[in-house]
Amino acid sequence: MAVADSRGRAAPVLISGQVFIFDNISGEDVKPFTPEKTREIVMSLQQPAVFCNMVGDWPALHWDVKHLSAMLDGKTIQFRIGLKAMDLVPQFETSCSYVKATLEEFLAWSSGQPSSLSGPFSCFEHSKYWAYADYKYIARIFEDKEEVFQDVRWSDFGFPGRSGKESTLWIGSEGANTPCHLDSYGCNLVLQIQGRKRWHLFPPGDTSFLYPTRIPYEESSIFSKVNVANPDLKRFPEFKNTRAHVVTLSPGQVLLVPKHWWHYVESIDPITVSINSWIELDSDHEARVEEAITRTLVCALKSAESSSDGDPWLNPTEVEATSHEVNLQYLNQAVSVYFKCQKANVSEQAHRSSSGAEQETRAPCKRRKRQVSCEPQDCQLLNHEFSSSTFKAEELQKIPFGPHLVQVLPQSQETSSLGAGAVASDDRDLLHENEGGHFGKLHCTRKQLVMSNDCTTPANQMDSDSSPNALQAALSTNDLLDCLVNPHVIRLVAQLLLERARV
């Protein structure tokens, strides 16, 4: 996809080497889909897709970095700093540096102005580092300017009452990225405002090929051990079986990321700005039970380790390792809410069918730490019981793909079979192997030596200098955790636990 104009119109889409301009000839204020139809698409579609010509009249489209800088008026926000050099290991948040700076300083640094104007960024050479102000809740950074919440209008997507207050802001420089992960809760709507971002998406069925891990730990995020932009196929040979869907999101376009789709996101322009909102789903109640089990196990095992191990297992987004007593209390609350909402949903669904959609005014569900409420209104979530395995071909055919809803197809899809409503992954963006091995073993720590001995790695694929003793290295706590809190295991444990609580 190429860049749309500054007002989010005429979004060009690259299909089989040709550029098609999809303009809203009926007028800027006319949406291609009604809010009701858009909501139906969001709640039923189980593969990623891009909405075009839906936000042309949103004031938030003017939220480029200069405009945001004026809005913040010198207020500092935290930026994550990472290396542009590509390693074989994902650049998790635990391995990044952090600075607090103004957007004026970020702009000065990004544009190559004198270091005296770039504040704390002056310590980082722009050619070697990227900066990312990620997960910035609009309700927090603009708490004294609540009127700007209405610049974001998710009501156009069928979620009345949802605005910037329930949305998150992302500001990055070229190269800024989010490690590959899936979100435990909800589905995701992402509006691109400035610059372009490239999304590498993988379906839930690829989970085992992505080597899931809960280290670093944060509630609601399951990370992949694989750096999908530079995969180490020696350590992670099953990654070659993944089905990557790659799409470049341009200003004015909105990406739907369905539930449990893995994603690695990178900024490919000098400055990028995007806004997203996580839409809570009915199935999140069971997911919160699973997350409570995971938190209890991770905190118990990792807290019991020697502090001298030096393993930064807790993601910076987590304030602290909570005690077993607190975690058990959270687990019981999650189980209680699950059963209360099961009962409430029976009557709520009947009420919703007669009275229409209800207002959605809850906070974004991503990283909503341990806020398990027993109030009835928190049971009024969106009914989303579809799964990718049950979403049949005839149901997919009912989705109105075309110039205003662009299907994101896997890279293996032949471009000759694409229609006007499909986007092939850009051939230039194909995931690549480490050519020539020039990255080598950059950080050969004890932990990495242990983790490289995955049982799925054939012995003949081990490094030539590996000794028999290295192959028999003791398993670490992280290895144990990777098995115990594997998503499939946690799902089974949650089901058994809910069955026990039911009787």
TrEMBL record:
Tell me a GO cellular component: cytoplasm
Q: Which Pfam families match?
A: Cupin_8
Keywords carried by this UniProt record: Cytoplasm
UniProt entry tagged with the keyword Lyase: no
Main localization category: cytoplasm
Q: Where is the JmjC domain?
A: 130-294
Q: Name the SMART domains on file.
A: JmjC
Q: State the compartments where it is located.
A: Cytoplasm
Q: Where is this region: Disordered?
A: 349-369
Q: Which InterPro entries match?
A: Cupin_8 (IPR041667), HSPB1-associated_protein_1 (IPR013296), JmjC_dom (IPR003347)
The keyword Cytoplasm is annotated on this UniProt entry: yes
Polar residues biased stretches: 349-358
Superkingdom assignment? Eukaryota
Function, please? May play a role in cellular stress response.
From the Swiss-Prot or TrEMBL record, give the protein name.
Answer: HSPB1 associated protein 1
